[in-house]
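Lab meeting tomorrow. Please check the following:
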Amino acid sequence: MRAAFDTWITPIMIGGLIIFMCFIIWDLARESKAGRFGTIMLFIVLGAGMLGYVLKVVITWYLESQGV
């Protein structure tokens, strides 16, 4: 039962954390009056770690589905 719970709750909680981190980046850009270019740069630089995690999950899923 616990393994099934962990299987479902982990991606949901990590997804919620990623959404919350995007909100934090947006709020940081708004409070600092970064402008359009500054906001884009904040999302690129600070969002790179989140993108790396999402890519890791997608690549792992793809490799496991191919039987590699």
About this structure: Residues 35-66 form the longest helix (32 residues).
